[in-house]
Write a structure and sequence with these properties.
The protein is an alpha/beta fold. It is built from 7 helices and 7 strands; from the N terminus they run H-H-H-H-E-H-E-H-E-E-H-E-E-E. The chain has helices spanning 2-7, 13-32, 38-41, 44-58, 78-84, 97-110, 140-147, and strands spanning 66-70, 89-94, 115-119, 131-135, 162-168, 182-185, 198-204. A 7-stranded mixed sheet has the order 3-2-1-4-5-7-6, with helices on one face. Helix 2 (13-32) runs antiparallel to helix 6 and helix 4 crosses helix 5 (78-84). The longest helix has 20 residues, at 13-32. The N and C termini lie far apart (43 Å). The protein binds S-adenosylmethionine (SAM). The site of S-adenosylmethionine has 17 residues, from strand 2. S-adenosyl-L-methionine binds at residues 71, 76, 122-123, 135.
Length: 209
């Protein structure tokens, strides 16, 4: 939690309280439904919350913009980003209903008004968004094939819209087909051994024709 306060010094009291509440919420839910691996739950703030917030080091989401989190699992990266950007609309989806049940409970407990969660397969999403975020769902070629038509044609965002994907390891092969993809090392922002091999991939997408 200290690292979050250090990295994001302009949080309001309400946002700080929301981040603080995550610990007990996820501990309680994880005892009932396994949404976070047992070995990671004690390092929730580093391995899940701060990791999710690495996206904010690359991209600031403006008021009124829309963000889809594909395969959100227990709510990552969508929930930490929704706390950080309360004026941005987040839509969190996962194919597994029990994961969405946990995400909805977290949304309700934190009174997050800017988040909607739904059981949904990525391929079946109908709406279009300014940004798509995700962590550890599938390889980049499959991921792009699922969501490439879901980026808004007329984004109201001044910055480049597209995909922000959290992944680890060597991505050279997966990204071969995407010459415009940019990889950012999370260890350049956050000093923790855990982030050594972790990256944010920014893939700006062409507007839907
Ligand atoms: C490894 S988990 C990652 C969960 C979360 N993003 C995180 O990093 O903690 C992958 C998640 O993607 C979901 N998933 C897989 N294929 C999907 C699809 N086609 N549409 C939506 N969700 C999908 C799975 O149900 C699972 O919850």
């Amino acid at each position: 939690m200290d690292e979050i306060l250090k990295q994001f010094p302009y949080l309001t009291e309400n946002q700080i309280q929301q981040f603080e509440k995550l610990e007990s919420l996820y501990h309680d839910w994880n005892a009932k439904i396994n949404v976070i691996s047992r070995k990671d739950i004690d390092e929730l703030y580093t391995k899940h919350v701060l990791h999710s917030l690495a996206i904010a080091k690359i991209q600031s989401f403006e008021e009124g913009s829309s963000v889809l989190d594909v395969g959100t699992g227990g709510g990552f990266p969508g929930i930490p980003l929704a706390i950080l950007f309360p004026e941005t609309n987040f839509y969190l989806i996962d194919v597994i209903a029990k994961k969405i049940k946990v995400v909805q409970a977290v949304i309700d407990a934190l009174e997050l008004k800017n988040v909607k969660a739904e059981q949904m397969r990525a391929e079946n999403v109908k709406e279009e968004f300014d940004f798509i975020v995700s962590r550890a769902v599938t390889n980049m070629p499959d991921f792009v094939s699922w969501i490439k038509n879901k980026i808004k044609k007329h984004s109201n965002h001044k910055l480049k819209n597209g995909i922000l994907y959290l992944k680890g390891g060597d991505l050279t092969e997966e990204l071969a087909a995407f010459p415009n993809a940019v990889q950012y090392n999370i260890s350049d922002f956050f000093k923790d051994e855990f982030f050594e091999t972790k990256k944010v991939v920014h893939l700006p997408l062409k507007y839907k024709a």
